Amino acid sequence: MAMNVGQETEGGEEVPMSEINVTPMVDVMLVLMIIFLITIPVVIQTVPVTLPDVRFEPTTTKPENVSLSVRANEAGECEVYWNLTRVNSEELLNMAVDKLETEIERLGGVENLTEETMPEAHIRGDVNTPYRCIGGAIFTMQRAGFARVGFISQPPPGGVVERL
């Protein structure tokens, strides 16, 4: 192993070395990289799940389906609209129960109600709406008896869907 302490000039004087020794820094970085490669899988523990593929399915609008729009106003209060009529949570529950009762009567009783004939609730939520507003609408519709509550979203441009 050679050691370079400096360079001698013509007069015999030594000039200080001006190059930085990067070997210790590289050694430290390699040790840190190995430590992180070993510890990251230990620290990040998740339950293995299979996430669904995101796909665009055109919505089949049936007259018995309920269309809800949910957003938050400037004051942060939740606004829920049944079609174009603004409703509070009590009115939403009453209207949803009435809608289901009307559909059951139209079909001739509960025994004629199937998954295909059951009305659905379609929720359109503004992108800036807090989840508590959308979650409240979902809870109210499920409490009223709607088994199928779906979300209306804007498809990606060009119809290309990527896996999240």
Descriptive notes:
- Helix content is 33%, strand content 16%.
- It has 164 residues and is an alpha/beta fold.
- Helix 2 packs parallel to helix 3 (131-144).
- Strand 3 and strand 4 (78-82) form a beta hairpin.
- The longest helix has 21 residues, at 23-43.
Shape call:
elongated
Total number of beta strands: 7
Order of helices and strands: EEHEEEHEHE
* Helix and strand composition category: alpha/beta
Beta-strand share of residues: 15-25%
Helix-residue proportion: 25-40%
Strand neighbour order, sheet with most strands: 5-4-3-6-7
Q: Given the structure, what is the number of helices? A: 3
List the helices and strands and how they pair.
Blueprint: E1 7-8, E2 14-15, H1 23-43, E3 66-72, E4 78-82, E5 85-87, H2 89-107, E6 121-125, H3 131-144, E7 149-151
Parallel strand pairs: 3-6, 6-7
Antiparallel strand pairs: 1-2, 3-4, 4-5
Helix pairs in contact: 2-3
